[in-house]
Amino acid sequence: MKTCQIAVVGAGLSGLYAARALNAAGLDVILLEARNRLGGRILTADEDGLPSEDGFDLGPSWYWPQMQPAMATLVGQLELSSFCQNGEGDVIFERMSRERPQRYSPTAMDQQSMRLAGGTAAVVRALATDLPAGRILSEAKVTAMALTDVGVELTVEAGTGSTSLLLAEHVIAALPPRLLEATMRFAPAQEPATAASWRATATWMAPHAKFFAIYDRPFWRTDGLSGTAQSMVGPMVEIHDATTASGKAALFGFLGVGADQRAAIGEQALKQACLTQLARLFGPQALKPSATILKDWAADPLTATATDRAGGAHPVPGSKEWVSGPWKDRLLLAGSETSPSEPGYLSGAVTAAEQAVAEILSKVDRR
Predict the structure, then answer these.
(1) Superfamily for the 2-42+123-204+307-363 domain
(2) Residue 252's closest CA among 52, 83, 41, 85?
(3) pLDDT score for 102
(4) 241 closest CA partner among 233, 250, 231, 232
(5) pLDDT > 70: what percent of the chain?
(6) For domain 85-116+207-299, which architecture applies?
(7) What is the pTM of this model?
(8) pLDDT tens digits, residue range 317-339?
(9) Tens of pLDDT along 294-305?
(10) How far is residue 159 CA from its own chain's centroid?
(11) Separation between Cα atoms, residue 358 and residue 12, nearest integer Å
(12) Extents of the domains making up the chain
């Protein structure tokens, strides 16, 4: 049986940050990720929807340095390049299907949204670089945790279907609480109030879908448009310029169609409906993309549960006690949704990880 001081479950931003910080502090850390890639809900993809070092952000895209100093500090520490989300040009508003979309000149924004050169996955790559390769286990799905006299025994299912055990003194679960409650078996079971609190915590991105249309050039900019649009007609309710720092042109939008309805309509029909909408808003050139991508996070079992299909609530910041009872001394939660500030956002993931690291360092001996 493998052993370690700290097992970090989930290699999204929070898990990577925590594992990197604990490793730097001299602790023996193993990072486990169920997917065959790192990043969790951070996914920067190419035109085929496959992970890329210079692509389009199918998950979180932005951070706001003034409002979210934790993320801004991390970007600076990792020496990553950032750029402003394009906002130059008119905004389009579509109110009714029987009315033509209207153009407006936007007022100055108080807070500038920023993006990372190379996509949000740039922060994932930078964090992973500082971790020993042998301590990152991908396609390693933790299916159960059991308390022992000396720590926590984790049951780990490999991508091949084989199962192994890992014994850790402490565990950081860097997952959304709702996903953790739905997919993990605990022995002893979590206290009913704790489990209910986890289930009640919305997972950001889980109910949502994003559509991308990729073009040879950002033709909307030539027409004096920013690429930003809001629609009460749909199927997309909010649209933005997704052009990369390297100049790959694209528009993306959040679908306002619910998860069950998306599944009933089907991917190809949804893509065509989105292109038809883009043509209404930005002109006939929008009908001729070089590629399209539809990422439905509600269909991702490593992000969403059945409960997430019902709505798109945002997690609420607070000072909850996330773990209670016999698990309190061995298990910490560090998914972005558990952050006391900016829960669900990239910055929330950093803050949640920082808190978990501080608590671990107060409990364990450094070797």
Answers:
(1) FAD/NAD(P)-binding domain (3.50.50.60)
(2) 85
(3) 95
(4) 250
(5) 97
(6) Alpha-Beta Complex (3.90)
(7) 0.95
(8) 766 799 999 999 999 999 999 99
(9) 999 999 999 999
(10) 22
(11) 19
(12) 2-42+123-204+307-363, 85-116+207-299
Distant-in-sequence, close-in-space partners of 272: CB < 8 Å, separation ≥ 6 = none
Short-list 87, 89, 85, 80, CA closest to 63: 85
Rounded Cα distance between 254 and 208, Å, is: 7
Q: Which residue has the tokens 């890639």?
A: 37
Run of H or E residues at 365: none
Taken in order 233, 235, 237, 238, the sign of the CA dihedral is negative
- The answer to whether the beta carbons of residues 166 and 7 sit under 8 Å apart is yes
The pair phi, psi for residue 88, each rounded to 5°, is -80, 125
What is the three-class DSSP state of 12?
strand
* Cα(167)–Cα(169) distance, integer angstroms: 7
- How far separated are the first and last CA of the chain, in Å rounded? 21
